Amino acid sequence: MKREILVNATARETRVAILEDDLLVELMVDRPDAARMVGDVYKGRVEAVLPGIQAAFVDIGTEKAAFLHVSDVALEEDGDDDDDGSEPDEGAEKPSANGGGGGGGGGRRRDYPPIQEVLKKGQDLVVQVSKEPISTKGPRVTAQISLPGRFLVYMPGSSHVGVSRKIEDREERARLRALAREVLPEKSGGIIVRTVSEDLTRETFERELKSLMSTWQQIQKKAKRARAPAPVHREAKLTAGIIRDLFSQKVDSLTVDSKNVFDEIVAYLEQVDPSLVQRVHLYSDAKPLFDAYDLEREIRDAFQRRVNLPSGGYIIVEPTEALVSIDVNTGRYTGKKDPEKTILKTNVDAAKEIARQLRLRDVGGIIVCDFIDMESKANRDKVLQELRQHLSRDRARTKAFQVSELGLIEMTRQRVRPSLYHTQTAACPTCGGSGRIFTPETVVRRIERSIRRAAADGKERQVTVRVHPEVALFVIEQEPKFLKDLEKSLKLTLALRDDPLLQQDEIRLIATNTQQDLSGKYNLG
Predict the structure, then answer these.
(1) Which helix (H) or strand (E) covers residue 326, if one does?
(2) Looking at domain 440-522, what is its CATH homologous superfamily?
(3) Residue 204 phi/psi, 5° resolution?
(4) Do residues 520 and 457 touch, judged by C-beta distance below 8 A?
(5) Mind listing the pLDDT tens digit of every residue in the chain (525 residues)?
(6) What angle do CA 395, 396, 401 make, to 5 degrees?
(7) What are the domain boundaries of the chain?
(8) What are the E-state strand segments in 145-247?
(9) pTM for this one?
């Protein structure tokens, strides 16, 4: 598979695009006004301990206190392997009944000591952000610090030694684990060997471990001097983190359109992996980098509800507060004679596209996919297998469950930061974020109810109704006798005026004589 990384850097924004076989699969955006927090380490102060949900709130200096679950205080010592470690473990979306992790990665349930025995209000604590603030929630933090390097993740409070699951060769796994145990000083912490570490030498291993242990010592010194709440360590910026975590021999090229960023990347790679320098290219054409790769259209499409499939079918992506629903439709693709084959083809295309859209939009939490119903169990299994195969390329932890009795595939995806949808868009001021507005006919019925309230009140005899031009046109064309009939039955003098500054389903009732706005008094729906 062909893999490319493109970096578009300006003074106010950095965008990193990841392409697989010339198709955009991930987009990350970094802006000074919306700094990324995941991986940052703080000296915080416990604000409240809540035994009922086995969690605490920690003041780390952000607008809202950070959430710390008991599972992120107690260390996990068992297990042999771990994930890639490119980001701190997200843990559960919500605490499970016994305090263990549920949610995002299908975590194992455990028994933990009661949080009130572990933490006290007013206690100072060094924590690391594992999840950005999302919507109304503050950041999530963990007391299990992990410091990622290019080849290793160092965990000072653990004794666990693991190897990335993505290194599949058994002999290489055994060699790396043995090397890790050999090099790691006794009682000095734990490590995870990362995916990029295949064929790692002892010298490189020792050098990076020494660097990460030194970083931890600096954090401890800074935390000792700092007064909570205070930041004591910042994670690498977006571009530096991407180079550290993703740029390896499996990536064919990295193209960047900023000379400064290009120089920084080359200087870093000359230190850690000189063989990759030749794959880094400086883009200097007049045509913008993302335009040259025709990415802007794909980025715009990532905010649309509808995504077309190559077969002619399409999927509808609907984010909600609780979950994201994805509906699959055959659209104009009707196949030939066999409807089951037609449906299977659409569902297989959809499975591939759904996995891509989840990565591209950075959707997290619970996702429900409504594929087109299939009679054959073998075909249902084929679609699930296709979905899981494409999800395996995702850096975020995902888990897709068996097809339910209702024909739905439920899945979870690790949520570390707000999705593109939340960071790049705002709720529509007209519809309030619902995506819907009242029809002109519905607005006219609301006008009628408002006027009847005004008439019943008996204080106004002359009223001017101001509406959007679309609603005024509807009244003129569809209900020309509307105002005259109301005037006659209610004994009022009414006038209708169009106002292009109003929203399409907004109404203003004005007292004709005094020009007093009566809307708040009579517009009750």
Answers:
(1) strand 324-329
(2) Ribonuclease E, catalytic domain (3.40.1260.20)
(3) -65, -40
(4) no
(5) 899 999 999 888 899 999 999 999 999 988 876 667 889 999 999 999 999 999 999 999 998 999 999 999 965 444 444 444 444 333 333 333 333 333 333 344 567 889 999 999 999 999 999 998 887 789 999 999 999 988 899 999 888 899 988 888 888 889 888 988 888 888 888 999 988 877 678 888 888 899 999 999 999 999 999 999 999 998 888 888 888 888 888 899 999 999 999 999 999 888 888 889 999 999 999 999 999 999 998 898 888 999 999 888 899 999 888 899 999 998 765 656 678 888 899 999 999 999 999 999 999 899 999 999 888 889 999 999 999 999 998 988 999 999 888 889 999 998 888 788 888 888 888 877 778 889 999 999 999 999 998 898 888 889 999 999 999 999 999 999 999 999 999 999 999 999 999 999 999 999 998 899 988 888 766
(6) 120
(7) 3-34+239-296, 41-235, 304-423, 440-522
(8) 147-148, 152-155, 161-163, 190-193, 230-233
(9) 0.77
Rounded CA separation 358/365 (Å): 11
Q: What angle do CA 150, 418, 195 make, to 5 degrees?
A: 20
